[in-house]
Structure formats: structure tokens, C-alpha cells
């Protein structure tokens, strides 16, 4: 097996890795580090969670040390572009960790913070700058920063930058960096527009791919509930409070919703049901986002409801479950979402809630990603709970109580949870194990039934 010491990295970088406790490179690191050390351009197809940050940061730190140029005034030697504030923050932190022994100055600038502070911060220049494209161009337009000393340019999560509308910013930036530079280009997917960008930015890049395009990560077990849209909240509450038949031990649950408003609504209703959760999306202020992420990381509030954009690139080891409250309409987005779990060699569970009008999305996801979903039955008492406490009092729909549709994984697919998950389930239901929040030991379904009864009595 390849070791970091086999890859040609310098002693200070190896020491920093030792301090982090990493001894074995991930596949993308093993493939990318040697050519990057040689100064080659690189095009990497990799999702977050594969260790790609170190794959570009470690050899770049060594290349910067080797070139030994001065920290340039109002400019930087290495520029890393990232789509979101969170990802930029994480990359900057990694640069600081990995470069601890190399004496390189690291700064990051992102939108939503004071431009004046950023201007002051960059006045004396920096060795490594991690930036979101918009904020970087603001400073360039104000003549507070230039890119003419850039030796290494990294585009991280390029497909997401395009999704966020940064295409013009990226084109402009490509005109502002010196021709003579090294470019490292990373994207989780390779649609045509990205390939064009690669052509613009890279010269004869070495291509490295750690997951084939649009396939879902191998260590993620994927499950599916067929459930009506207006019954999803009830199902979510039952899952989170009672751990209804859901495989895997809950540690941190990341829930995806399509809209900011949707995130807030889910959080509010979970709160009313006694399940504390936080939301993270574009309307939240930076301190709010940071607090939510921090509480999630520390497992103080281990349920986080997010939009795609906000959650992109979040690196939180220990996301045990990704729950797709709504399915994304773009299959690639599904890949990104479930990529939040099963990071750094761990297993993960992804659960999708699919409503009738989302069947086409599900079909696309399965076609594009070869995802094999195992369909889970709705809780035994689900219908009763929906009837009693659901948002609308509706007639029971036999299709949901006794699904007629064939299992989403195909006729031959199992409809019962796999054995290994049953084994992993731990204590009997209601015993409290793995429950992220709320729900007293011994509560569980009975408590819900009681609640249901009392509501029914009131009604
Ligand atoms: P990334 O894909 O760069 O976001 O990295 C995903 C996670 O894996 C981060 O928490 C890294 O700190 C961690 N990681 C990266 N490289 C290694 C490694 N060689 N061994 C163990 N963990 C790693």
C-alpha cells in the first residue's frame, strides 16, 4: 500500500501529516500528489470527502517552498477558488494545518463579511489565498488586489461554482492570472461546460478520477420511502424520534430540502415535535451558519436541515445519515448530497423520501447513478399517526398503507432492510440508542400512539 513517505513530499509536510494522524494517502492523494509535485496541471474528478483538499494542498505547499518566492504585496502565490464560504473556510484551515511547518501565510476571503477588513488583511499580500470568486473580484475591482503573482491556481468544486452562476467570474479570473502557472482543477461532475472550462484553464492536464462520473459513493447504503409530500414531516418526526426501522446508528443527520423556506419550516415543526434542529441556508447570517455548523459538529444539535448550496462541501466527519426530504431535480445534486456521509473511510446511510410527483427525479437518479435503493416500509402506525396528528385530516390511502408499486430497486431487489443493518441497529426500539434528540427511553411508538389517541379524543 502506498504511504505518504513514498510520494516525494518534504519533511515539514510529512510532519504536519503525522500531527494530523494521517499515514495512508487516499486514492486521489496517491494519484494526484506525484504529478502535481512535478508541476503538471491536473484535472480531478472527485467528490468532497475523498481527501481532495490534501491532494492539491500538500504538493502545492511543497512547490511553493521549493520556488521560495517572496510573499507578494497585494497579491498571492497560490489562489484557491471555492464556491461557498464554508468550503473556503475549510480549505483555509487545511492549508494552515498542512502548512504549519512550512511557514506560509494563509488568508481567506468570502462574501458576507466586511470588504474593508479583507482589503486591510490582504494589503501585505499572502502566500495562499482561499477565496470565493465574487469577493475576490470585488477586491480586484477596487484595485486592492491583483492576481499577477499567482504561481498555482486551484478551482475547487468547479461544477458547483457554475451552478452558483460564477461562470463570468471564472472567465474573468482566467484572464487575470499569469499564463505561466500551474492549474489544478477539481469537479465532482464533468458536464460539457466544465470540460470547456478545463480547456480554458489547464494545459495538458493529468486526469485523475476517483469516482466515475455521476456514480454514487460505494460505501453508502441507500434507502427509499415512498410517501406523500404532505406526510413527509410526520414520517421525519417518527424516524427521528423513534428510529423507526431505519438502518444505521444515528450520530449526525443531515436533511436536505429544496428551498430555504422549506428548511425553516422543517426546523420549526421538528422543534414543535420536541426534536431540536438547526437550518443552514443562504438567508442565514454568517454567525448563524457558523453556530449551526459548530453545534452539528459537536453533536450538540446533531440534526441539520440544509439547502444544496449551503451544504455543499461541508466537511463534517461523522454524518451518519443523509436524508433527502425532497429529491433534487438534478441527479448530480443527489451525488453531492449523499457524499456528505461515508467520508474518510466510514460507512454511511442515505434515505430518500419520494413523493408521487418526484418519481421522475428518482428515475433520473437511478438511471444516471446506478444507485440501488432498498425500499423501506412506512412505520406500522404511520397511517394512524397521520390521521390523528397529520397536517390535514385525510382519508386513508391504501396505496401507502400497502404499497402496490414494485420495490424501487427492481423486482429482484429485497424489500427488507439488509441483515447487516438489522444487526447494527443495537438496542431494541425505544431503548434510546442512537436517537439524536428527544424521545425518552421507553417512549417511542407507544408515546406516539398515546398522543394520537389523545388527539383523536380531542377531535
Ligand atoms: P476532503 O475531501 O478534502 O474534504 O477530505 C475529507 C476528510 O478526510 C477531511 O476530514 C480530511 O481531513 C480527511 N482526510 C483527508 N486525507 C486523509 C487521509 N489521508 N487519511 C485520513 N483522513 C484524511
How confident is the prediction overall: mean pLDDT?
Answer: 80
- Named at the architecture level, the CATH assignment of the largest domain is 3-Layer(aba) Sandwich
Q: How many E-type strands? A: 14
Give the strand content: 5-15%
- The CA-CA distance between the termini, in Å, is 66 Å
* Class based on secondary structure composition and strand pairing: alpha/beta
Counting copies of identical and different chains, the oligomeric state is: single chain
How much is the radius of gyration in Å? 24 Å
Could you tell me which ligands this complex binds, including any ions or cofactors? adenosine monophosphate
Query: So how many helices?
Result: 19
Poorly predicted residue ranges:
390-459
- Widest sheet, order of strands: 3-4-2-5-6-1-7
CATH level 1 name of the largest domain: Alpha Beta
CATH topology of the largest domain: Rossmann fold
Helix percent band: 40-55%
Shape: globular
Main sheet overview: 7 strands, parallel
Number of domains: 2
Biased composition (Gly residues): 429-445
Region (Disordered): 387-459
Family: Belongs to the DEAD box helicase family.
Domain DEAD-box RNA helicase Q: 2-30
Amino acid at each position: 500500500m502506498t504511504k505518504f513517505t513514498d510520494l516525494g513530499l518534504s519533511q515539514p509536510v510529512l510532519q504536519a501529516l503525522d500531527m494530523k494522524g494521517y499515514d495512508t494517502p487516499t486514492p486521489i492523494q496517491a494519484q494526484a500528489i506525484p504529478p502535481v509535485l512535478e508541476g503538471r496541471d491536473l484535472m480531478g474528478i472527485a467528490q468532497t470527502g475523498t481527501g481532495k483538499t490534501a491532494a492539491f494542498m500538500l504538493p502545492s505547499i511543497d512547490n511553493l517552498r521549493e520556488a521560495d518566492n517572496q510573499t507578494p504585496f497585494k497579491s498571492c502565490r497560490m489562489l484557491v477558488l471555492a464556491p461557498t464560504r464554508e468550503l473556503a473556510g475549510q480549505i483555509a484551515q487545511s492549508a494552515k494545518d498542512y502548512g504549519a511547518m512550512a511557514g506560509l501565510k494563509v488568508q481567506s476571503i468570502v462574501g458576507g463579511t466586511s470588504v474593508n477588513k479583507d482589503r486591510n488583511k490582504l494589503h501585505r499580500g499572502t502566500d495562499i489565498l482561499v477565496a470565493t470568486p465574487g469577493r475576490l473580484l470585488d477586491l480586484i475591482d477596487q484595485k486592492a488586489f491583483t492576481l499577477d503573482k499567482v504561481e498555482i491556481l486551484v478551482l475547487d468544486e468547479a461544477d458547483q461554482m457554475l451552478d452558483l452562476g460564477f461562470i463570468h467570474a471564472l472567465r474573468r479570473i482566467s484572464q487575470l492570472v499569469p499564463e505561466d502557472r500551474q492549474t489544478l482543477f477539481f469537479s465532482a461532475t464533468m458536464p460539457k461546460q466544465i470540460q470547456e472550462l478545463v480547456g480554458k484553464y489547464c494545459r495538458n492536464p493529468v486526469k485523475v478520477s476517483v469516482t466515475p462520473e455521476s456514480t454514487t459513493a460505494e460505501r453508502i447504503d441507500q434507502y427509499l420511502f415512498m410517501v406523500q409530500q404532505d406526510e413527509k414531516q410526520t414520517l421525519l418526526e417518527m424516524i427521528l424520534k423513534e428510529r423507526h426501522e431505519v438502518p444505521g446508528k444515528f450520530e449526525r443527520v443531515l436533511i436536505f430540502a429544496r428551498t430555504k423556506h422549506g428548511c425553516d419550516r422543517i426546523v420549526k415543526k421538528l422543534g414543535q415535535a420536541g426534536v431540536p434542529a438547526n437550518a443552514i441556508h443562504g438567508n442565514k447570517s454568517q454567525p448563524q451558519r457558523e453556530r449551526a455548523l459548530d453545534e452539528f459538529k459537536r453533536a450538540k444539535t446533531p440534526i441539520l436541515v440544509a439547502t444544496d448550496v449551503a451544504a455543499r462541501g461541508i466537511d463534517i466527519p461523522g454524518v451518519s445519515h443523509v436524508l433527502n426530504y425532497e429529491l433534487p431535480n438534478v441527479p448530480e445534486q443527489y451525488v453531492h448530497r449523499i457524499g456528505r456521509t461515508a467520508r474518510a473511510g466510514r460507512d454511511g446511510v442515505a434515505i430518500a423520501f419520494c413523493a408521487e410527483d418526484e418519481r421522475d427525479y428518482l428515475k433520473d437518479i437511478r438511471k444516471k447513478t446506478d444507485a440501488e435503493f432498498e425500499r423501506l416500509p412506512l412505520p406500522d402506525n404511520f397511517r394512524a399517526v397521520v390521521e390523528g396528528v397529520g397536517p390535514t385530516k385525510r382519508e386513508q390511502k391504501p396505496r401507502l398503507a400497502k404499497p402496490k408499486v414494485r420495490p424501487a430497486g427492481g423486482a429482484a431487489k429485497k424489500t427488507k432492510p439488509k441483515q447487516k443493518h438489522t444487526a447494527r441497529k443495537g438496542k431494541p426500539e425505544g431503548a434510546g440508542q442512537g436517537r439524536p434528540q428527544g424521545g425518552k427511553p421507553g417512549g417511542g411508538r407507544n408515546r406516539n400512539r398515546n398522543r394520537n389517541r389523545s388527539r383523536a379524543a380531542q377531535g
